[in-house]
Specification:
This protein is of the alpha/beta class. It has a domain at 3-158 and 188-214: Rossmann fold (3-Layer(aba) Sandwich). It is 39% helix and 17% strand. It contains nine helices and twelve strands. The longest helix has 21 residues, at 75-95. Bound molecules: NADP nicotinamide-adenine-dinucleotide phosphate. The site of NADP nicotinamide-adenine-dinucleotide phosphate has 26 residues, from helix 1, helix 3 and strand 4.
Length: 286
Amino acid sequence: MKSRVLVTGANGQLGKTIREISGDFTISIDFVFVDRSELDITNIESLELLFQSKDFDYCINCAAYTNVDLAETEIKQAMSINATAVNNLAINCKKHSVILIHVSTDYVFDGAKQSPYLESDTTNPINVYGESKLLGEEYIRKQLDNYFIIRTSWLYSKFNKNFVKSILSKLKENEELTIITSQKGTPTSCIDLSYFILFLITNSITNFGTYHFSAKGDTTWYGLALQISKYLNKSSNVTPIKDYPSKALRPLHSVLNNNKVEALTKKPLKNWEESVNEVLKSLSKV
Ligand SMILES: NC(=O)c1ccc[n+]([C@@H]2O[C@H](COP(=O)([O-])OP(=O)(O)OC[C@H]3O[C@@H](n4cnc5c(N)ncnc54)[C@H](OP(=O)(O)O)[C@@H]3O)[C@@H](O)[C@H]2O)c1
């Protein structure tokens, strides 16, 4: 029997990526994609109506408040979308026996650990966005047994605005760029993450809980920009700088340990360079 899957926040970069690859899964999954205009997850009545009217097996929550700097001042909005609404989503999932697949972030950690973060490591967010995402996680764990919380990092795709696309277009315009070296993490392709999410569904995985999903390896924002410039043969346009001032503090080291994911899929993850090159290749076709 086909799984009925609700995807919220369908106009975000992750939502659009899942929609793009959904064609590969039509034999096993019936998707319902809803963007913010069709389902505002902060609207309790709309949430209840949708869950009542359709018999979902899974909900993939791609809806989120994702502006890390703005969250420092728009605290209410960030908390409302990333925490309160996630609680309401979890309540509806519980009521209707829906498995919730929720996406969270490496920013739940403070970045003080020098080795890759395990799922069991102590969280300690250092900005409002991280706090709001952590609160969302905590609500899910309180409400549900059947959930997947997938923490990921430095997402990019061919859709919407993201670091990879903005560096690519600036380098194409021959801009000279100065990029920071202070933060270490792992760029993660929305394509790789989407396939992992859909692996959970198509394989009816019941090892519920929290997972760290990123690409393999680590780098800095400068390293990522350099990779993009190498792809374009424009390495001389990127200069490293230690740090830039920004509104929100960010963890200096937020590399995630992916052993739990690899044990589940029995497949090694791709290196971040390989996945970045794949997306750059698909962007050069656009
Ligand atoms: N981007 C990253 O680097 C990164 C890193 C780690 C984890 N994550 C997590 O990964 C997930 C996917 O991120 P992403 O990069 O795909 O984010 P994104 O591109 O910003 O997409 C988020 C989507 O959520 C929608 N949304 C916001 N408020 C909503 C509401 N009240 N109801 C319904 N939809 C709402 C947004 O709609 P509008 O366009 O109308 O605002 C947007 O389409 C998020 O949970 C994020 O926290 C992201």
